[in-house]
Specification:
With 240 residues, this protein is an alpha/beta fold. 44% of the residues lie in helices and 16% in strands. It has a seven-stranded parallel β-sheet with strand order 3-2-1-4-5-6-7, sandwiched between helices. Strand 2, helix 2 and strand 3 form a beta-alpha-beta unit. Bound molecules: NADPH dihydro-nicotinamide-adenine-dinucleotide phosphate (NDP).
């Protein structure tokens, strides 16, 4: 029998695209989700359904999964990766930016979990891997809104892990440090983008997204009786 279906949100760039490549190499059929369909298709992987969806639209992930499952069978792993980082200070940042981050990084992630948890519990197996961050464990300057979303991801992941552990479902968080992706383009303040770039240089550069992808695959590939609850990985010279 072939390997089971893996669904990845935010697979059109950065960490999500790297995760998709690693799972394809491991022989899994894939459901890739993001808004930029041409970028999803450009990842160019075999046995892959690319779905152009906005994960903040409730029900969109479940609908995409239904289409993929018709072709490839049940989703065995959901990688909840779509996210954005908009740096700023609470007193000056446009509140729409926090709303956007909470909608995408937290609420859409919860909706995607809800879309797969029931069937996974019924089957007595399945893995949800949520992309948190070192910002889900500690604080950084100008990160209050983003840090809030990632602490939420860490808390939600741990809480749900406890709730579904008895049903054989694994819920895992991956907490990467600074990684070379498009995420920094989302911060609107040019000054904060420059500060971030200076910090990246100070710590001697950032991780390749494939380093995170390997950690995701490692966690997934453990025997079903083993749950790697959390992986924290960061550039060696990143202290916090
Ligand atoms: P990128 O900006 O490169 O990728 C973000 C992905 O999310 C894209 O594929 C984007 O696709 C997708 N996305 C954004 N909004 C939506 C939406 N509304 N609906 C569907 N997909 C969406 O950044 P990263 O690869 O860095 O980010 C991936 C995850 O990793 C995030 O959760 C981020 O917080 C986390 N992370 C990143 C770190 C880093 O240093 N880079 C460190 C720690 C964690 P599209 O625009 O096509 O919709």
């Amino acid at each position: 029998m072939g390997k089971p279906l893996v669904a990845i949100t935010g697979a059109s760039s950065g960490i999500g695209a790297a995760v998709a490549r690693r799972f394809a190499e491991a022989g899994h059929p894939l459901l890739l989700m993001a808004r930029r369909i041409e970028r999803l298709e450009a990842v160019g992987l075999p046995s892959t359904l690319c779905e152009q969806i906005d994960v903040t639209v409730r029900g969109s992930v479940r609908a995409a999964i239904d289409r993929a499952e018709e072709e490839y069978g049940p989703v065995d792993c959901l990688v909840n990766n779509a996210g954005t980082m908009m740096l700023g200070r609470i007193e000056t940042q446009d509140p729409l930016e926090w709303e956007r981050m909470f909608e995408l990084n937290v609420l859409a992630l919860m909706n995607a979990m809800a879309a797969v948890l029931g069937p996974m519990r019924d089957r007595g197996s399945g893995t949800i891997i949520n992309m948190s961050s070192t910002s889900g464990r500690t604080t950084f300057p100008n990160h209050a809104g983003y840090t809030g979303t990632k602490f939420a991801v860490t808390g939600i992941t741990e809480n749900v892990r406890e709730e579904v552990a008895g049903d054989g479902v694994r819920v895992i968080s991956i907490c990467p440090g600074a990684t070379s992706t498009e995420i920094m383009n989302h911060t609107t303040s040019a000054e904060l983008r420059q500060d971030y770039a200076a910090w990246r240089d100070e710590i001697g550069g950032v991780m390749d997204p494939d380093a995170v992808a390997r950690a995701v695959l490692f966690a997934y590939q453990q025997p079903p009786s083993v749950c790697v609850r959390e992986i924290v990985l960061a550039p060696t010279r990143q202290v916090r």
